[in-house]
Specification:
Radius of gyration: 27 Å
Protein name: Asparagine--tRNA ligase
CATH superfamily of the largest domain: Bira Bifunctional Protein, Domain 2
Order of helices and strands: HEEEHEEHHEEEHEHEEHHHEHHEEEHHEH
Structural class: alpha+beta
Strand content: 15-25%
Bound molecules: adenosine-5'-triphosphate, magnesium ion
Number of strands: 16
Pfam families: tRNA-synt_2 (PF00152), tRNA_anti-codon (PF01336)
Distance between the termini: 35 Å
Subunit structure: Homodimer.
Family: Belongs to the class-II aminoacyl-tRNA synthetase family.
CATH class of the largest domain: Alpha Beta
Number of helices: 14
CATH architecture of the largest domain: 2-Layer Sandwich
Shape: elongated
Subcellular location: Cytoplasm
Helix content: 25-40%
Largest sheet: 8 strands, mixed
Length: 466
C-alpha cells in the first residue's frame, strides 16, 4: 500500500478506512494497556496521533523500542478522535520500526531547545516544530515566487554562478581558482591568472543583475532565482555569506513601474503563504513573534508608503530618537535608520526612492532636472518592519554616454563592460529591476530574529559545516 501524507489524513482522511503512514515519533505516552504516539512526517506542524492497543502484535517490544526520534511505518484504521485539536487519529494494526533513536544521546527530547543550541545541530533541527514550520514556509514562498512571475509571463533565466564581473563594486567577492595559492606565494611572484582555469580572475556571483539585463533586452520580462555569495562581514542577524536572490528585470519599465511590481509581488507572496500555511503562521505568531500577523495583514491590505531619500533624511533628522550612526544627506541608511522608518515612523513597509548617486552602484539611472536632482539616482529600497532593507532596485542607466562616464567615474574600466555597453549601443530601452533577498523575505514573513535560522545550511564567517 502506498503511504499517505499525514497532512492529507488530518485534512481529508476517511474515517474507518485503512491507511499506511511513515514518519518519526515525536512523543510517546503510555497508559494502562494502551500507548499513544505522535507521528510526524514533516508534511505539517501537527502530527498524527497513533493509538497502540495492547493486543497489537509485539506490543510490549514496540512500546519499549519506540522512543522520540524512532522512524516507523504504521498500518492502521483512521478513527474519529476524542482528543482536542484533532479531527482523526489512527488505530494501529501493525507497526514496523526502521530505526531507533537512543534517548540517552538523541538531542531532540521532548523539551524546548534554544534556537542557539539548535543552530549547532543544523542536521537535526529540521525535525523540530519550529524549523519544520520555517522550511515549509520557505518552500511555499519559493513556489509562490515562481507562480507570481510565471502568471505574468516573465521568463525564468539562469545567470551564471561563476562570473568575472563585480556587479555591486563592493569588493565582497569570493574568488574561484584552481591555482595552488600556497605554491604561488612561495615563489614570491604575483598571481598569474592567465595560468588559472578561466585564464582570468573569476568569482562567485554577488548578483545576477547585469546578466539578467542581457536577457531582459531580448525577452522583455525575466527573473532570476538562485544562490548568491558575498564575502562580507555576515556577523549580523540579516547577512549571510550564501543567500538566495530573486531578481526580476523589465524592459520598457521605469522606477515607478518597478516599485509597483515589487509591492504587488510582496502582497502576492504573503497572501499565498497565509492561504497555504495557516497553521505554521499561527505557530510563528504564538511562539516566535507576536507581530507576525499584524505585519502580514498590513502587507496584504495597506498601500506601502513611498518617500524620497531626501524626505527620509528629514524624518530621521527631526525625530527624537538618537541613533548610533550619523544621519546626513549623502550617507547610506543603516539598518537602525531603516528599521525606525518602517517599524516606528510609518509602521508598515516603506519604499525609499532617489538615493544620492555617490552611495549607489554605477548602473543606476541618473535623475534629470535641477542640479540637486542630478545628484540622485533612480534607486529604490523597500524597508520592512523587523528586517530593514528587503528589496533593493533601480531603473538602469540606458544612455550609453552617461553609463560610460559613470563606469569610469567609479574607477572601473569600460572595456571590461563592453558587452554591457553593447546593450545600450544596440536597441537600448528604459529598463528597471530589483533584487530581493530570499532569506530576508522568509525572515520577514516568519518573524524569525536571525537570518541563520531561515536557511537550512547557513554560511557565515568561520562556519561552513556540512
Ligand atoms: P544591506 O544594505 O542589507 O547590506 P545591500 O544593499 O548590500 O543590503 P543589495 O546589493 O541591494 O544589498 O542586494 C539586494 C538584496 O539582497 C537586499 O535588499 C537584501 O534583501 C539581500 N541581501 C543583500 N546582502 C545580503 C546578505 N549578505 N545576506 C542575505 N541577504 C542579502
Ligand atoms: Mg550590503
Ligand atoms: Mg543597502
Ligand atoms: Mg541595497
Amino acid at each position: 500500500m502506498a503511504s499517505a501524507r499525514i497532512v492529507d489524513l488530518l485534512r481529508k482522511g476517511q474515517v474507518n478506512d485503512s491507511y499506511l503512514v511513515r514518519g518519526w515519533v515525536r512523543t510517546k505516552r503510555e497508559g494502562k494497556g494502551i500507548a499513544f504516539l505522535e507521528l510526524n512526517d514533516g508534511s505539517s506542524l501537527q502530527g498524527l496521533q497513533i493509538v497502540l492497543p495492547q493486543d497489537l502484535d509485539g506490543y510490549e517490544t514496540l512500546v519499549k523500542q519506540i522512543t522520540t526520534g524512532t522512524s516507523i511505518e504504521v498500518s492502521g484504521i483512521l478513527v474519529e478522535s476524542m482528543g482536542k485539536g484533532q479531527r482523526v487519529e489512527m488505530q494501529a494494526t501493525a507497526i514496523a520500526v526502521f530505526g531507533t533513536a537512543d534517548p540517552e544521546t538523541y538531542p531532540l527530547q521532548k523539551k524546548r531547545h534554544s534556537i542557539e543550541f539548535l543552530r549547532t545541530i543544523a542536521h537535526l533541527r529540521p525535525r523540530t516544530n519550529m524549523f519544520g514550520a520555517v522550511f515549509r514556509v520557505r518552500n511555499a514562498c519559493a513556489f509562490a515566487i515562481h507562480q507570481f512571475f510565471q502568471e505574468r509571463g516573465f521568463l525564468w533565466v539562469h545567470t551564471p554562478i561563476v562570473t568575472a564581473s563585480d556587479c555591486e563594486g563592493a569588493g565582497e567577492m569570493f574568488g574561484v581558482t584552481t591555482l595552488d595559492l600556497n605554491k604561488v606565494a612561495a615563489t614570491g611572484k604575483p598571481v598569474d591568472f592567465s595560468q588559472d582555469f578561466f585564464g582570468k580572475p573569476a568569482f562567485l556571483t554577488v548578483s545576477g543583475q547585469l546578466e539578467a539585463e542581457i536577457m531582459a533586452t531580448a525577452f522583455s520580462n525575466v527573473y532570476t532565482f538562485g544562490p548568491t555569495f558575498r564575502a562580507e562581514n555576515s556577523n549580523t542577524s540579516r547577512h549571510l555569506a550564501e543567500f538566495w536572490m530573486i531578481e526580476p528585470e523589465m524592459a520598457f519599465c521605469d522606477l515607478e513601474g518597478d516599485a509597483d511590481l515589487a509591492e504587488d509581488f510582496l502582497k502576492y507572496i504573503f497572501n499565498y503563504v497565509l492561504a497555504t500555511c495557516p497553521k505554521d503562521m499561527e505557530f510563528f505568531q504564538e511562539r516566535v513573534n507576536d507581530r507576525v500577523m499584524v505585519n502580514a495583514q498590513k502587507i496584504v491590505e495597506e498601500k506601502f508608503e513611498r518617500i524620497t531619500y531626501t524626505e527620509a533624511i528629514a524624518i530621521l533628522e527631526n525625530c527624537s530618537k538618537t541613533f548610533e550612526y550619523p544621519v546626513q544627506w549623502g550617507l547610506d541608511l543603516q539598518s537602525e535608520h531603516e528599521r525606525f522608518l518602517a517599524e516606528e515612523h510609518f509602521q508598515k513597509p516603506v519604499i525609499v526612492m532617489d538615493y544620492p548617486l555617490g552611495i549607489k552602484a554605477f548602473y543606476m539611472r541618473v535623475n534629470e532636472g535641477t542640479a540637486s536632482d542630478r545628484q540622485t539616482v533612480r534607486a529604490m529600497d523597500i524597508l520592512a518592519p523587523g528586517v530593514g532593507e528587503i528589496i533593493g532596485g533601480s531603473q538602469r542607466e540606458e544612455r550609453l554616454d552617461v553609463l560610460e562616464s559613470r563606469i569610469r567615474n567609479v574607477g572601473l574600466n569600460p572595456e571590461d563592460y563592453w558587452w554591457y555597453l553593447d546593450l545600450r549601443r544596440y536597441g537600448t530601452v528604459p529598463h528597471a529591476g530589483f533584487g530581493l533577498g530570499f532569506e530576508r523575505l522568509v525572515q520577514f514573513i516568519t518573524g524569525m530574529g536571525n537570518i541563520r535560522d531561515v536557511i537550512p545550511f547557513p554560511r557565515f564567517p568561520q562556519n561552513a559545516e556540512f
